[in-house]
# Entry
Amino acid sequence: MPRALAFILLLLALGSPCLAAEAAAPRFRIRLRAETTDYDLRRERAVARDGAELSYRDLTLRADAIEADLGSGQVQAYGGVSLTQEQGRLTAESARYNLRTRSGVLTRAEAVFGPARFTGERLVVSPDRMMVQAATFTTCDRPRPDYLLRAASITYYPGDRLAARRATLYLYGHRLITVPSYSLSLRREEVAPGLAPRVGWSRADGPFAGLVYGFSPGGAREFTAALDARYTQQRGVRSLLQGHYLPSWGRVTLTASRKEDLSERPIAFGFEPLPVRVREVTVDRLPELAVRTRSRKLLPWLEGQFWAGVGHYREQPSGVTGGRTGVMADLRTARRPVSRALGLEPGVGWRYATYSGGEHQQVVAPRLGIRYQPKPELDLALTYQHRTPSGRTPFTFDEVEITREVTGELTAVPHRGWRTELRARYDAEGGELRDAGVTLVRVLHCLEYSVGWRKAGGEVRLGVNLAGEAAQLVR
# Structure
């Protein structure tokens, strides 16, 4: 055999029993190289040894030895296995992989997908997921990761989420916490910190300490849950528990909360199921069931998102208790560029709600946004919104407190490893700054530490989280 043997195998020959039911299928082609290659034409099998390399479409497989069934696409590889695809790279001691189904099993393996790194005794891969047994996970590329998640098993859904069973989080090599289940969202449009401790002080709570914990019951892709719990000196225990069902078109959410303070919601830019308040008001959702679609294109120039919900609520300090059924829609056009760095983002929001006491309310809110981003390290957004309410509501949290307002958001990277976020709400009708906030983030390798202040509630907050996509910018 020559030193380097390359060949293309076309396997749709007449009479081939394994392909008789796939006559219309495209021709199956691979390229195989090695120091030594043996090919059995009758059995349609090839064995390559000593520096073997197999290529098929966007996949490249390297190993000390490769055995390939050229009829079924089943491949086995041994010793120094490396499997590279467009999504990432996997290495292992041995592997069994089917080129047709894009599925297989790797032993004592490591997988790298962008910043995400997994290791495990056994990796089971398929086109839409990867399951890792006796697993570790981190996004830290240091020899000793700043943080590490160790779990009995981790299921990874690329671009969607990560779900772990019996998970332990390590911080700088020290065991921090063990939980029965853990879930981390990988969707850009979601804010799901997984495990995020918080401490701080506010006028209403006094000193407080809390934890946001995301988990996935049973490790299922379609079901996740999150608990946001806080112990406060002045208002006792406050909590928010949400369970999500996540079909491809959006989400269904069941929410129960106790002393949920709506003034603590982030200053809103666009679509929010409940309006952001300035006055302090707490709500117990007893519970609330809501359906929310993903943003989708309705016309070539128009996108839309829709929400509907029903629930029973108890509000303080008003003492009002009752039911509420509501629907919302948010429509926006595609960004209209004015220059390379400047663009307009027009849109309109609509909400209609009915209440158990017979009241009803409608709000129409057109808006115009301006976004200026001259470079990746600087992003400025300004939005003018005019809300027009009609009807009435028994709840304070549904009242339109500001009819005409300007909201602003500035994200800047003043220096490598630092990020600054500024937000503000200006009452254009009353001529008053109603809310403002500033957050300073320090990115240290794979973790980010933050300190923030907000005018509403006079809150000061400290936090630590995994360095996310926004933090990659300042590394």
About this structure: The two ends are 50 Å apart (CA to CA). The mean pLDDT is 84.
